[in-house]
Structure formats: C-alpha cells, structure tokens
C-alpha cells in the first residue's frame, strides 16, 4: 500500500542564527504534491519480502524510516526543492503487487519532472524502479535507451525459483527487455568472486552484461574503471543508478543482509558514483539493502546518509533537472 509521508521523521538541529545557509534537510523538505515544481522526491520501499525469499537476514523494511532519520540533519546545499513522497509498503508477502505499485508511483514522479530517490528495502526494489522507468520511457521517450548501473557485490541475476526475490531483479528486467524488444544494458560494479557462483557469471555473460569486479577497483586503477563507466554511459540516453549497500566493505557497511568481505571502500565508491552522476543521464537513483538491525551505533546509517547526500547534490546540479 501507499503510505503518506511521515514528516515527524524529519527533525533535527536548527541553527537559526545562520539563516538560510545554516539550514538542513529537515527544514527544507515538504510532503510531495505531484504538481509541485520539479524536485528531488524521496520515496521509500518498505519491503522484507525479497530478502526473505532469498534466504537472507530480514530487516530492510525498516530502512526507509531509519535512512530518513539519518538524512534529516544533512546540510541543505542545493536550491532544488526536496520532497518526501511517502512509502510503498509490501503487504502480506505480496511482493509483486508492491513492485507494481512502486513502479506506478515512480512513473507519476517521473511524469511530473521529479528526480525519484528511492530508499529500500531489499534489492527487489530494482524490479519496481525499473517498471516505473520503463513505463515513463515507453510513454515519453520511446526511441531512447536505458542503461542500468548497479554498484553491488552481487550480480543479482538469479532465475526466479519460482518467484522473484532480492537476488533476481536484473534477470527479471532482462526478461522484460526481451519480451518488449528492448536492449538489456547492464553494468555491475563491485562484483565479488566469493559471493557469486560460476553459474551467475555465466548468466551475466549470456545476457551481455558488463561486470567490473571489486578486485579491479583500487586507487591505482581508478581511472581505468572510470573510463569503463563513462564508455557504458556514453552508449545510452538515460541511466538507472542503483546502489546495493553491500558493495561497501563489511566494516563500513555492516547493516546489510550479506556484508562484504572485501568490498569497494567509501572513498573509491564516491569517486565512481560521481563519474556516473556527472553523465547527467541519471533519471532515478535507489539505495537498497539497508538493514538497521545490524547497524553498530548508527555508523552504517551515517555512511548511507552520506551517499544520499552525494546523490541528491549531484542530481540537483544535473542538466536533467533543468
Ligand atoms: N541481493 C542479493 N543477495 C545475494 C545474497 C547472498 C547471501 O545471502 O549470501 C545473492 O542473491 O547472491
Ligand atoms: Mn548485494
Ligand atoms: Mn543487490
């Protein structure tokens, strides 16, 4: 079901002596009305069902709430309006209806010129995000192509068995692309060899996916990785950016279902995210798998909030938002 924005989550420190330049997100954000001027629209996807079906550690349904609390105190550094578009909640294990509703809500946001920033929930969020983007492109950008860039330790190309989960979204998207005669353009950045079986790498190959492994991502090799990302971005018109927080090392991001033994550290991830966002082609970003039950004194929530800060700031500056 669709839940209205709970504006009580947006509270924090106020430095009124510093005027507008001292404001924070909780002072700027307002509940979204669709016909408001275009802005960044934060939308939650409260779902445990994908991770449950994928035999993981549940708790990501609380992600949207805790991430909002963590982002409330971020400095307001851009002028674009900031909105809370509420949550889509998955009820009674009916993930498919929840993903369809998420897609419909995202489609509305895109139609009205907003930049949706969607907070999971498990990575099953991606199949909902995609549905919203695909409908928007079908209706308004029929000739354009979409590229998906997924920062993730996992390929998430599992075959639904029998139903979709947090491990299947990009396979489900590939299936939809095939049904609709659209190209499947997918780049996974940060894949870990100890977290993906040969069957999954083979599927990535068969589907024409591009994969950059975590081991390739080092400070001395960053330019090469950035070039590969830019080359991928150059080939598409729009980019769907999705961040599975388990791409970070477990020490930086323990609050996920499947923490990473190696991961891509925050310092490098930030650089690569900027590379994607600087393309000015990102039409939606989401952040998946945050599970507050496994956080340690809110450290991971702060790390996720910092990523949210980066994504919102870059998106606000992009040409796409006029
Ligand atoms: N979203 C992805 N999840 C991983 C989970 C791995 C695990 O639980 O160990 C996957 O399916 O590969
Ligand atoms: Mn993952
Ligand atoms: Mn994932």
From TrEMBL:
Domain of life: Bacteria
PROSITE patterns: ARGINASE_2
One Pfam family per UniProt: Arginase
Pathway assigned to this chain's UniProt record: Amino-acid degradation; L-histidine degradation into L-glutamate; L-glutamate from N-formimidoyl-L-glutamate (hydrolase route): step 1/1
UniProt keyword annotation of Metal-binding present: yes
Enzyme Commission number(s) from the entry: 3.5.3.8
Co-factor remark: Binds 2 manganese ions per subunit.
Homology family: Belongs to the arginase family.
Function: Catalyzes the conversion of N-formimidoyl-L-glutamate to L-glutamate and formamide.
Name of the featured protein: Formimidoylglutamase
Organism for this UniProt entry: Microbulbifer echini
């Amino acid at each position: 079901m669709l839940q209205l924005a709970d504006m009580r989550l947006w509270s924090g420190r106020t430095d009124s002596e510093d005027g507008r330049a001292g404001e924070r997100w909780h002072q700027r954000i307002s509940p979204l009305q669709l016909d408001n001027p275009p802005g960044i629209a934060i939308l939650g996807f409260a779902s445990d069902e994908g991770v449950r079906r994928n035999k993981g550690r549940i708790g990501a349904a609380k992600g949207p709430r805790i991430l909002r609390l963590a982002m409330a105190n971020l400095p307001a550094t851009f002028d674009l309006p900031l909105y809370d578009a509420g949550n889509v909640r998955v009820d009674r294990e009916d993930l498919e209806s929840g993903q369809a509703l998420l897609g419909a809500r995202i489609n509305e946001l895109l139609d009205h010129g907003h930049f949706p920033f969607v907070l999971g929930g498990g990575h099953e969020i991606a199949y909902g995000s995609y549905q919203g983007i695909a409908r928007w492109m079908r209706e308004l950008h029929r000739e354009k192509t979409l590229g998906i860039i997924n920062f993730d330790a996992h390929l998430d190309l599992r075959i639904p068995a029998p139903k979709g989960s947090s491990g299947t979204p990009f396979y489900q998207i590939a299936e939809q692309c095939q049904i609709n005669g659209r190209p499947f353009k997918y780049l996974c950045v940060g894949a870990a060899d100890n977290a993906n079986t040969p069957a999954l790498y083979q599927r990535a190959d068969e589907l024409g996916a591009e994969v950059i492994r975590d081991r390739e991502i080092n400070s001395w090799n960053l330019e090469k990785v950035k070039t590969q990302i830019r080359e991928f971005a150059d080939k598409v018109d729009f980019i769907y950016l999705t961040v599975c927080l388990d791409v970070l090392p477990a020490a930086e991001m323990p609050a996920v279902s499947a923490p990473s033994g190696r991961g891509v550290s925050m310092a490098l991830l930030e650089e690569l995210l900027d590379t994607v966002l600087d393309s000015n082609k990102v039409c939606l970003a989401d952040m998946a798998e945050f599970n507050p039950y496994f956080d340690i004194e809110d450290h991971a929530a702060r790390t996720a909030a910092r990523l949210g800060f980066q994504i919102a700031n870059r998106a606000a500056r992009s040409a796409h938002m006029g």
